[in-house]
Amino acid sequence: MINIAIVDDQELMRDGLRRILSTYEELQVVATGKNGFEALEICKQHQLDVLLLDIRMPEMNGVETVKRLKEEKCMVKVVMLTTFEDEEYIVQAMAYGASGYLFKDMPYDQLAECVKEVHEGRFMMPQKVAEVLAKNIYAPEALKKRENPYDFTEREVQIAEMMKDGFTNKQIAKTLYISEGTVKNYVSNIYAKTQTENRVEAANLLKSIF
User: Coil, helix or strand for 73?
Assistant: First the structure.
């Protein structure tokens, strides 16, 4: 049984999701909430497997909530509920440890399957989310404006920027439509060019130049 909590400021959305997910015998909705503060309390009171978290909420939004959960070393897997209008928050939530993104209008069966996939440890990013990231965050014209003191290639700049924001190799691969092995090769190149030896050291250096 997968224990789920749903946190969304829209009552119709969270009640609708609760009713839908409760129809699947392997899924159990144990709590609902309407803002980030309630999400934090729910995570303290329940043994959750997956938290469905609206990215835009009053009082404390989804991004800040994911950050707080990470700081408190909460192990729940967080799936952000998002729309096309939320692109400014998507990268931040991913960097803070979100396990995936789901559009609120996706088919119910697909939603349930995504919850199961996340519970099994997979990172879920619908193609539409990846396209939003690629188009609006890592567009070539934006990359040209960034400093490049280490003579990074365009792809290395993309990956260095994401490393700086805390992305894992898996998240980078998913966003850029390349394999994890390819990402590892680029990360090794970045280590060599910056003369750093590990992810933390490289990320700290990259924060000072991007």
Answer: coil
